[in-house]
Structure formats: structure tokens, C-alpha cells
Amino acid sequence: MAMAVANHRESNDNINRHLDSSGKYVRYTTEQVEALERVYSECPKPTSLRRQQLIRECPILAHIEPKQIKVWFQNRRCRDKQRKEASRLQSVNRKLSAMNKLLMEENDRLQKQVSQLVCENGYMKQQLTTVVTNASCDSVDANPQHSLRDANSPAGLLAIAEETLAEFLSKATGTAVDWVQMPGMKPGPDSVGIFAISQRRNGVAARACGLVSLEPMKIVEILKDRPSWFRDCRSLEVFTMFPAGNGGTIELLYMQTYAPTTLAPARDFWTLRYTTSLDNGSFVVCERSLSGSGAGPTPSSAAQFVRAEMLPSGYLIRPCDGGGSIIHIVDHINLEGWSVPDVLRPLYESSKVVAQKMTIAALRYIRQIAHETNGEVSYGLGRQPAVLRTFSQRLSSGFNDAVNGFNDDGWSIMHCNGAEDIIVAVNSTKHLNNISTSLSFLGGVLCAKASMLLQNVPPAVLIRFLREHRSEWADFNVDAYSAATLKAGGFAYPGMRPTRFTGSQIIMPLGHTIENEEMLEVVRLEGHSLVQEDAFVSRDVHLLQICTGIDENAVGACSELVFAPINEMFPDDAPLIPSGFRVIPIDAKTSNGQDLLAINHRTLDLTSSLDVGSAPENAATASNPSSRSILTIAFQFPFENNLQDNVANMACQYVRSVISSVQRVAMAVSPSGLNPSFGSKLSLGSPEAVTLALWICQSYNRHLGSDLLRTDSLGGDSLLRQLLDHQDAILCCSLKPQPVFMFANQAGLDMLETTLVALQDITLEKIFDESGRKALCPDFAKLMQQGFACLPSGMCVSTMGRHVSYEQAISWKVFAESEDNINSNIHCLAFLFVNWSFI
Fold first, then answer.
1. Segment 399-445, tens digit of pLDDT
2. What is the secondary structure of 425-459 as a DSSP string?
3. Of the N and C termini of the chain, which has fewer Cβ atoms inside 10 Å?
């Protein structure tokens, strides 16, 4: 640091001197420096011509050599660089000093906690019950009648507030709670903060402390506005507020939070919030639940809420030397896990989930605001950060509203499909003003939703795949319909005209949080008109989308992909009707294995409903029971008054199709091979893939008397690799009344313009046009009779509608060869397209 300052001073001397004609250093005059500074402000690095022009235009610089002018600009740029570096080092030094102070306090707290535990250890056997009762700061008030009586008067509320303050401070900076470091969240100079969790007897707790470059009062204002940063907060209402007499305020709050899935009711809280300042200049906002019923939901939605308890929690904000603040956050709640199915209880009893959704989210949001305030964040399309944050919040709350379907928002259940448990709810026009006043022409909005259990599927990987490969699960024409219906002149919207979508998407980033845990973006789906007169008119559909939780190392983090059609002009007040996916990891918990397959008959199990083969017998035992998560899907569809039933049927079919596609995607991204017939498992090194490659080659030789590959001595991975890299397209389809493709080499995927995941959606007849299907019929009969058939040159169609020509096609039966080659069974049909090309 001292060296940087010394260099800075030396550069100041050098920059103001130049060599005269006699070779001596002469100081620039004030007028000369001003002239040079004016040019530098416009162009810090002028060209040789610009420097010569400067000398001609400024007579006071005429006797200075052009080389000396060049040196002056070099020194001036160097001085600017040194200033910036010195400023950066000072900022880093302040940050490290504050972090060091924070770590020293944390170390002192841990030492006190160790001493306390050592003292208590001697009495543990004899007085276990007494020690737990006395040491726990979580114990419920022993006399609820006393709390009820105190809560009826200002003096009683002040007493409760002071008690809440003391308990909160003992958790934030004392030893009242046995905190354990949050897995995967190591403290450091560049980390968000220090995070800890605790599993308590009557609730779960999370704690965070960190450094933020905002003033304490600004932080207090942000944290008290909970709906702005807590995405699960549906509403927060202040019923009563009065001064506490010591400069603080006491508020009585009623808060509703969303349920994360369709499988459990939402939660609400009736709490007291106390805001005050301490003698050392710190600010405190603490909160706890009050006894008694207090405020509650409307009668129409009372059955959709369960009253939860908030134990003493809050925020401690201390001003930091040199600017900024040190924040301590404690969240301690009891979500009443008894009210949810057993398999969901770990979700409601997980301190990691509370930490990610509340504690870490609060600290990250404050840091985001601090970076935006300091101008350290840039956003796309020229939008202000506040506008983009509002878009993110609207997408998130709209998706949560669809998942929960509260009656007081106007939602009512149309029907629940018992076979697949797809719930269809409807919201009429009179309630759509909450979304936008411009939707009065609509008959309403339908929502088709479902929740299901995933096993051994990483949530971050699944959401990332769904984001990057939309064509694998989405129907672009449905997106076009939703976009068209949101316009007053829906039938004039280009999306309603005959359109073919190319399957490609362009993701245009708008902004992201400083740690990239959330991304806001616009997705453009490219489409082309099938009407000749509109051939050159764009038929693209635009979606506004947020993607969160794609970091695989984030413990307990929820992963989401939420999107909504939006006008291509992207107005700030655009109506948004979001749809999307949410995947929530569930901690391992000892329970009956049957609970994993049936959550009160309200869960779809992705791994049990696939019709692409049987899983290995040891798949269930080999899978890790801790790798479980709940996937919630909710899709909303606007409709006109006379089309409600038609749209409801379409919504059910579409969501059923999405679920089927997600099943295949989930199996594809699962790290454990649960299905030997599934496309993406037939990759290099997979035993099933090697076996199928061997069967294909052996059956080809058996029927045609020649080798499919150039070398017949290949085995294992080498044989599979040569088959995958074969120049001709090789595809395999199942033996069903309607054959479906199950495997293809790289040339086959290129010819069909598809992927291994989407391959199982393609039937054999789908790649031929009408004439091609007629020509295939006699050859297909010959294939089934003699085991192989040679087809003449012809044409087929890719999944993108492009025609493909081939010189010859060969088809043969693939046998699952047994050891004696006698009891071989037909496994599938193989096709070889020779010298294919696009027309």
C-alpha cells in the first residue's frame, strides 16, 4: 500500500516536467497543463496526428517536442491507473479489516460456546432434561395465558418485545444456539458472508453475518420490506404500529407465505416486530410469533393455510468504520411439519432450506442493492435495475399464485385427473385485474399443474437442461397461442397464422444477480409463416424468463425455470401469466420406503411410469435415498369466454406431454443408469450400449453375410465408438404396432436433426411422407418374413421438415444373442441409410 502511494507521488512530479532544448527538465506551466488536461479528458490516448494538431492549435505548447507530449500522456494514463489501483487496494483493505473483525467475533463466540459445552458435559447424564430446558433459547413460553394477557396492552407488548430482543441477540452473537457451519459455504474475502445452521427441538434455524457497503438505516428499510426479497412471501400486512417509548417502534404483523408445491397447504404468521437501536449505535429489527389467533386469512381460503410459528429472529446491523455495515441475520421458525405428507417433512424441517430461502436470500439481496447503488452492475436493453427486479418478482409471484391457487384470488378447481393427478384450476376475468387491467377481454386463465417425486436427478442439472433444450419438451405452437391470446386483437396476431417453428431459441440476457444464482432473460423462439404472402414477416414468439438455482454445489437450494409470453416491445407494464418448473431437493430422512412412491396418492413418480424398458433389479437399492427432490409443474393458459372447455382439454394434454418429456429428460440426466434401453445411456462406456452395438453387428452379419464395420475383431468400447462414428446413418426402432426409434448413431441424429433424448418421440412412419410410407409397406413385410430387406433409393423427412435423400437403405432384425445362439429373441429393428444428404 505504501509503495503504491510512493509511486503515485513520484508520477505526479514526473508528469509535470519535460525536457527543454538544452536537455534540462523544466516544469510545465499551469496553462500548458490545463490545455493537455482538456485534450486528455476527450481522448486519453491521442494519435501522433492528434498530438501534432494540438501543438499547432496551442501556441503555448509550440516549443515542446511531440515526443515530450507523448510522454506526458503516457504518464497521465499511468497516474490514472495508479489512482484506481490505490483506491481498489484501500477498498480491499477496509473490507479485509471488517471481515477480520467479524471472524474474530465469531471465534470469540465459538470459544465461549466450547467452554459452555465443557461445563455442561459433566451434568449431562444426571440432568439431561433440565440442561436442555435451561440451555435452549427455543423453549415455548411456559405460561401462554401470561402472553395472552400481556399481548392485550402496550406495556405487555413492550415486555414481550424486550424479551424477544434479548433472545435474538443471544442467538445472533451469543451461545444460545449450537450453530454448525453451512455445508459448502466457506467464509472468505469474496464470499457473501458466514453462514451457519442449527436443528432445534422445536424448529429450524439459520444464521448469517456479512459486510455490506450500505448505511444501517437503508438496510433496515430493505429488510423490513420482506416481500421485495423473500420470494415465498405472498403478503405482509401491518395491523398496528406504536412507539415503544425508547425511540423504537412495535408492530403487529400478519404474513402469508406460499406453499412450494401443490402437495401441502401454505403457511401464515401472526407476529410482533420490534425495531430499536442499541447503545453502541447498532440497529436491531427482531420478531416473534404471538400467542392466540390474531389476524388470519379470509374465510374462503382459511383451509389453505396452516399457522406456523416464528421464534425470536431478526437482524442486527452495526455501522462499520470507513463506511458500510456488518449484518447479523437469524431466522428461527417452526413450519409445523406434521401437517404435510411424511415424504415432504424433511422439506419443512430442513435448516438448509430455511437458510437458502430466507437467510442467504436476504443477505444476497442487500449486496445486490449495494452493487447497483455503486454502479457496479450493468443490465441489458437499457432497463433500470428496479424495473428488472420488478419483472423477476412478478414472474415469481405469478408462478407461486398458480401453484397455490388461493380461493381469495379467484381460483377454483375444475377437476383433478385421478389417474395422473393433473389439477386444473380456473380464474375468471373479474380477478385478472391483479395481473393486468388490459386483460378484461379474456374469459379467464386456466392452470394445469402437478407435483411428482424425482429420485437421483440433480435439480440444477435438470433445470439447466430444460432451459437450454426447450425443443425437447415444449410445443412452440402452444407458446404462440398463449402469446396471441394476451393481445386484444388475438386473431390478428402473427402467432395465430399458420406458422412453422424452427425449434431454435435465442436467449438474450437482461441481467443477473452478482453470484449468478438468478438470471433474467428474454427468449426468442424463431418461427416462419407458411402463408406465401407473409413469407417475409417475422413469426417469432418472445418469452420473459427467470432461471434460478443452477449451481450444483448450492446445498438446499431450489431450482426454478419460470417464463411468460411477452410483447416483443417489452413494455414495463406488460401483462405476465407465468408457467414453469420448480425442483426442490429433500434431505435424507429415515422413513418407510413406501412413502417414496405415494404421497397420499398425490405424487407422480417419474422413475416408475416409463414405458421404455425395465429397470435393473438393484436400481432401487443402489440409488442414494438422499438424492430425492420434488418437481412441481404449473402451466397457465389464457382463454376466451366460449373456449374454456376446449382450452382445459388442451391444457391437460399439453401438461401430460410435458410430464412425459420430463420423464425422459430426468432419466437422461440421472447419474445412475436406471434403464438400459434409454437413449442417452447408450453412450461410450455404457455396458448396455456396448451390448446393443454387438447385437447390431452380429445380426447384420447373420442376415447379410458381411461385416457392418471394417474390422470384425473389435470389441467393447472400440466397437461402439466405430458404430457411433459410422459415416452412414444407423437407427434402431422398437418392435411395436407403431415402431418408435430408440437408438441412433451420430450420423442418424444429424439426418433426423434431433437428439438422443427427443429420439423416442419419433415414430418410424413420421420420417416418411405419404409416398414413402406406401413404398415402405411391401419392403416392411419382406423384412418381417426373411429378417432383412434392401430398399432402393428414396427420400425421408427430418424432424425440422427438411427432405433427405439416400442412395440405398438396408433394414434387418436385431437379435438379442444368447450364448447358444439358439434361443435368440428379436430385440429391435435396425436401419442403415447409405450416402444420405439434405435436398
1. 999 999 999 888 998 877 554 578 999 998 645 555 555 555 577 89
2. EEEEGGGGGGT-GGGTTS-EEEEEEEEEEEES--H
3. C
